[in-house]
Amino acid sequence: DTWRYAFEEAMEEVQGKYAQKFKEEVEANSDHEVQLFPFGTLGESADTMEQAQAGILQFVDQSPGFTGALIPEAQVFFVPYLLPQDQDTLFEFFRNSVAINEMFPELYAEQGLELLTMFPEGEVCMTTQEPVHSPEDLNEVKFRVMTNPLLVESYEAFGAVPTPLPWGEVYGALQTGIIQGQENPGFFLESTKMYEVTDVITCIGHNNFTTAVMANKQFYDGLPEEDQQVIQNATDAAFEYILEYQQGLQEESLDKIREAKPEMEINILSEEERQPFMDTASQVEEEFIGMAGDSGQEILDQMKQDLEDARQATSG
Ligand code: 6CS
Questions:
Q1: What share of the chain is helix, strand, coil (3-state, %, to 5)?
Q2: What's the rounded Cα separation, in Å, for the pair 258 and 263?
Q3: How far apart are CA 116 and CA 93, in angstroms?
Q4: Where are the alpha helices (DSSP H) in 246-270?
Q5: Could you identify the atom of ligand 1 that is nearest to the CA of residue 45?
Q6: Which of 46, 111, 184, 216 meets the CB 3.0–4.6 Å disulfide criterion with 188?
């Protein structure tokens, strides 16, 4: 059969690299073919999710930043400073997290989706027109966020005026001045040329961009066990591949930006400067519980446990 797989990025961006590896593995180990649909070919992220739920697509990559309305618990990834900044700890967490590997699949299943994996894409940094050294500097800055209620709360707590927009509108909105800032991981700031429409990059270590790959559940459940195993193996292989791919990627991407635009200001904020941003975490966490209820609380507690385990496993 031909299986259709849509993702939210271009072929040579992280989600595209993951999808290409997945395709390669499936095709090497079965008679099935995987047809890839990069960003823009089937609409915005909300559109491809609808198509996956309707079974028009067999696979979809949609980041939790867009899944908040469907699965409120997925917004946990927008509690600032929850994910570790240390890459080994982060990878260990994604590999072994009970929340990700056991709890989230149940929540996605309720929406007709078989959650295959979640993986990180890199440290998220802000790009703006003016330097940001404190929340005061974001005052009155219209800041684009993914369409996710908790991310709105989070940027409000950071002092900005959050503006949820689908990705396809961001470049133009920055160019015309409708918004003055946005956030994304380093590789994406470079590949989508955010430096053409903003002048300053600010990294405060508040998050790592998480994404999720899923299958239409009815399709998946209807497959013979052998094909399900092919999908699981391809998922695991692509997961390890994409973690490896990201070694050093953030620094390389920032270097490429410096090369493309030497006058770009790139600020990695100090611990002291980060503190007021870090201080918003508990408030945003409370907002998260308000939105996601008891089930959200359980996920958050489990994630904290998983993070502690990951720290233990990678320390020393
Ligand atoms: O900011 C966004 O909307 C996009 N950012 C990334 C890194 N991937 C896809 C997503 O649509």
A1: 55, 20, 25
A2: 8
A3: 16
A4: 249-260
A5: 11
A6: 184
The CA distance from 238 to 215, in Å, is 15
Q: Which residue type occupies 44?
A: E
pLDDT digits (tens, 9 = 90+) for 117-170: 999 999 999 999 999 999 999 999 999 999 999 999 999 999 999 999 999 999
Give residue 167 CA to ligand 1 midpoint distance, Å: 6
* 216: nearest Cα among 116, 308, 122: 116
Ligand 1 in reach of 121 Cβ (< 6 A): yes
**β-bridge mates for residue 182, sequence order:** 127, 144
Domains assigned to the chain: 2-314 (3.40.190.170)
Does 316 have pLDDT greater than 90? Answer: no
3-class SS at 305?
helix
Q: Tell me the three state secondary structure of residue 69.
A: coil
